[in-house]
Design goal:
Aspartate Aminotransferase, domain 1, elongated, Sufe protein. Chain: A, Aspartate Aminotransferase, domain 2, about 500 residues, 15 helices, seven-stranded mixed β-sheet, 16 strands, alpha/beta
Amino acid sequence: MSSEPIYFDHAATTPVLPQVAARMAEVLAMGLGNPAADHPPGRAAHALIEQARAQVAGLIGCEPADILFTSGATESNNLAITGTAPATPASASGSGGGSGNASAGATKPHLVSLATEHRSVLEPLRAMAAGGATLTLLKPDAEGLLHADALAAALRPETRLVSLLHVNNETGVAQDIPALARVCAARGVPFHVDAAQAAGKLPQSIADITLLSFTAHKLGGPQGVGALYVAPSHRAHLRAQMLGGNHERGLRAGTLATHQIVGFGLACALAAERRESEATRLTALRERLWQGLADLPGVARNGRPGAPHILNVTFAGVEGESLYQGLPELALSTGSACNSQTGEPSYVLRALGRDTEQAQSSLRFSLGHDTTGAHIDAAIAAVRRTHARLWAASPARPVPQGPEPGEWWLGEAGAERLGTWVRFAVRVEGEIIQQAETQYYGCPHTAAVCNLLCEQLRGRSLHFIELGTPDLWRQAVQAPIEKLGRMLIIEDALNALRPVT
């Protein structure tokens, strides 16, 4: 087997397709000029960009003139949100995101979104709220869905923008975008859709949609380039956020990166050709993966199945960091790729009703063009192996007492809700510890210290246990200082040793 881990993180970024990489290399070798320049090398670059613009537009069914190139979905989302709401009068009327005339003394602009949106949507919205707008963040149902009637009830006369994900990047839940778009159109409210995880995976329609964001690196194109669809009726109401040039019809300054845009265009063309067949294939693989894990104790699927390439699973009863670290042969995410480095529980899963520990004990598997049935089977085997090991060590299981003669003592501290739960069981003959066992729910450092202490307990006097200090234990397993609290819980479990009655 290859030493490289099997890639299950396509929702974070997809490896560039070989055809795309080859085409980008060709373009880089052409000696092209600035596509804004009026000379042969510049005009050649401009022609390639316009060809790519048509390919990108073809993926979502719009006119090429309605596509603006950006650096990615994050910039597209920011441009759509911060560029629309200040420019759209609170008394907007009409359909398709058009706007009327602002009246004197208009009320504060009102913005609507969902609590489970990507941070590149939530943070611009919150920044605008800090600047004086009012913001309504709706809560999804237990399956992650927003229903049209709930959206309709949230709209006000002063609502300037609704911004929603088509496919949630953590759970794969797919919203009913046509139904939600009709609600906005009926009230004359501009509707922005973040389609980063949906473009090329699910059918796209721009009917009643004002703005739509997507990016190349989620569908086999390069990182660093994306697009924003802008409805023709809305173009005059969108305010540029990057200034310094008249590029992209004056809505996004900066010299266009020809090779990246060409790669984006080809990736979109390939995605359009393969969308139906790939959706069928990936859905079957996703369900094969779920069926291989569904019978494990404590396992639950997060969100209603939607996008074909994402499966998010909670493994309640096993600690998340230990689960993740126990799967070195898999490259996957414990949550949103934009949030996984913080160690915080996923706000998306919390919004779906998972508690902190359940959210942290969740894995996101995201599949792509290179995922095979053999990869799925290998992932099932790896997760089942690691889950079995952690579940066997869990304090939720019966106390490990063997048939050997002697008196048993137990000590326990912590709780699952604290992220660390430790139990020691020792068998004593006279005053000497003959046998020591441990159960734990905790990070790999917690497990390492518990196992180390079990080795040191054997042969010691029960009444003169001197095993060092929690900080020395932390240093012995090279745990960071923030893990000291977990070491203190281990000490509490040792100090709690009492005879089994």
